[in-house]
């Protein structure tokens, strides 16, 4: 007889294959669907195994509003790197009050002090890849291990590295379904939704900060630059490694 561990592994493998097939079909069927329709498919397919990643950026607050209207019980989480702007935390508090929603805080295993002891000061300047891996990628990996699908605010228009994002795709990094309901939306559509529905948003977005991450690695964007040009400025990096396109090229990252 198979032991429980082997049975659990087999069950997980069967679920992954089934989910991959569902994602393949949905990727075609929902390619031009509205964000609400994409979310509805995700919630209907995965239920409580579906979660939304929220950085409290403009796209994510739109998804919070949409998801709350669809199913207010779906869990929403955020990665707290201990380096977030005060405005980011304030936006979280405003959203929590507006929707009566608790946002799950996901943190790195190492505190900033412990990271400094192990890797030296200001690791983000010397080795941003390792810093992001410690403070973002690994915490996300741990959290997503309990889910079968996650949702992001990625839009194709945001940068060249995101230009191939689909509304529904298979995440090769985390081996699960990934939804990007706003993939085809323009920034004008995002702002229009925010204003029409009076969704709380980070005021930094009105101060030339279209993409907001950690304090040391976020700067204002200059006229004519893409929305992620202010992230890791001066480095050969525009993504943190949370998202990867099927071809292997980066296609996202909050």
Automatic annotation (TrEMBL):
Keywords: Cytoplasm, Iron, Iron-sulfur, Metal-binding, Oxidoreductase. GO terms for cellular component: cytoplasm. It comes from the Bacteria. Residues 51-219 form the Phosphoadenosine phosphosulphate reductase domain. [4Fe-4S] cluster binds at residues 131-132, 214, 217. Its cofactor is [4Fe-4S] cluster. NCBIfam families: APS_reductase, cysH, PRK02090.1. Belongs to the PAPS reductase family. CysH subfamily. This is Adenosine 5'-phosphosulfate reductase. It comes from Desmospora activa DSM 45169.
């Amino acid at each position: 007889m198979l032991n429980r561990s082997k049975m659990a592994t087999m069950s997980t493998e069967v679920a992954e294959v089934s989910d991959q097939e569902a994602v393949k079909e949905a990727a075609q069927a929902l390619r031009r669907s509205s964000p609400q329709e994409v979310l509805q498919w995700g919630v209907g397919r995965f239920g409580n195994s579906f979660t939304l990643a929220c950085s409290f950026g403009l796209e994510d607050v739109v998804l919070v509003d949409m998801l709350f209207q669809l199913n207010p019980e779906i869990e929403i989480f955020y990665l707290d790197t201990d380096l977030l702007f005060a405005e980011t935390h304030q936006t979280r508090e405003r959203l929590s009050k507006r929707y009566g929603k608790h946002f799950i805080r996901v943190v790195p295993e190492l505190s900033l002090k412990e990271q400094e002891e192990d890797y030296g000061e200001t690791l983000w300047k010397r080795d941003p890849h390792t810093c992001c891996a410690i403070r973002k990628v690994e915490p996300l990996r741990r959290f997503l291990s309990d889910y079968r699908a996650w949702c992001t605010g990625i839009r194709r228009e945001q940068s060249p590295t995101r230009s191939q994002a689909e509304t529904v795709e298979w995440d090769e990094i985390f081996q699960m379904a990934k939804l990007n309901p706003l993939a085809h939306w323009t920034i004008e559509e995002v702002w229009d939704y925010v204003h029409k529905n009076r969704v709380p948003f980070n005021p930094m977005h009105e101060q030339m900060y279209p993409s907001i991450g950690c304090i040391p690695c976020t700067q204002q964007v200059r006229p004519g630059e893409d929305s992620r040009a202010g992230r890791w400025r001066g480095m050969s990096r525009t993504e943190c490694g949370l998202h990867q396109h099927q071809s292997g090229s980066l296609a996202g990252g909050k």
